[in-house]
TrEMBL record:
Superkingdom per UniProt: Bacteria
InterPro entries tied to this protein: SirB1_N, TPR-like_helical_dom_sf
Source organism per UniProt: Oceanisphaera psychrotolerans
UniProt protein name: Protein SirB1 N-terminal domain-containing protein
Protein SirB1 N-terminal domain boundaries: 45-184
Family note: Belongs to the UPF0162 family.
Length: 268
């Protein structure tokens, strides 16, 4: 069951680190034991990295050590696996996808006093770090610095061959933007594996961040429908229709609401 109180403070003025927010998601979905295990894995990783970086310049050596001897790597073979989206599993496996490895990299940069920021790049989360006076863009999936040409290739993969990099593509993302991206990716992975209850929990967390977002309400409606919660699905679909009447999907949803079984259920 979703522990909604965990996310109640997300929009407050209380400062919360990005890693704390990512671990909130784990606890909301799987409870305090999963979070405790994640924190133990994180502490062990930090201690190992501290030992590896002893007497080294962290800003110069953090990436080679983290993606070298410590074995952090992007999971090419199981890219869409739920294991790559949940921070407790990413920390224990040291494998993930760009956004989860990016969150880990940002946390470790902060821990070892390396200036860094996340970039909400279309289709592929990136990290900018400052090993010296000049910032460089890193792919957290590989730990490599990206050239502008490589970033353009990523962009075209996400937006089509006519896409060109614009300044807003490379601007820093704030913590809640990154959390939103993490939740969307996690929700999509659960849907891909037909784990609709967990996907619904992610949708509920997203609505904590954007309570009046008609598109998130629409998506939650589809999940309610998959879980045979027809009245709740209809409520969300009607919210979307009311707020986005010109959207082409609105007409489809009107027909869908009409087809839902909204009558009283007979208990046997």
């Amino acid at each position: 069951m979703l522990k909604t109180n965990i996310s109640d403070g997300w929009l407050s003025d209380e400062p919360r680190s990005l890693m704390t927010l990512a671990l909130d998601v784990v606890e909301s979905l799987y409870g305090i034991k999963a979070r405790d295990q994640a924190e133990l894995s994180l502490f062990a990783l930090e201690q190992e990295l501290a030992g590896e970086l002893k007497d080294m310049n962290a800003s110069q050596q953090l990436l080679p050590v983290l993606y070298g001897s410590m074995g952090v790597v992007g999971d090419w073979e199981r890219f869409f696996a739920v294991d790559n989206c949940l921070m407790d599993r990413v920390l224990s496996r040291r494998r993930g996808i760009p956004v989860t490895l990016g969150i880990l990299l940002l946390h470790l940069c902060e821990r070892f006093e390396v200036r860094a920021e996340g970039i909400g790049f279309p289709g592929h989360f990136l990290v900018r770090i400052w090993p010296g006076e000049e910032g460089i863009v890193i792919d957290p999936f590989t730990g490599r610095q990206l050239s502008r040409h490589e970033m353009e290739q990523l962009l075209r993969g996400a937006r089509g061959n006519l896409a060109r990099i614009k300044p807003n593509h490379l601007k820093a993302a704030d913590k809640l933007d990154i959390l939103t991206r993490l939740l969307n990716v996690t929700k999509a992975s659960f849907i891909h594996h037909q784990q609709f209850s967990q996907a619904l929990a992610c949708s509920q967390l997203l609505l904590k961040l954007k309570p009046d977002c008609p598109f998130e309400r629409r998506d939650r409606g589809f999940l309610y429908e998959q879980l045979d919660c027809d009245q709740l699905a209809a409520d969300d679909f009607e919210f979307f229709i009311e707020h986005c009447p010109e959207d082409p999907v609105a007409d489809v949803l009107k027909a869908q609401v009409a087809a839902l079984d909204l009558g009283p259920k007979t208990l046997h």
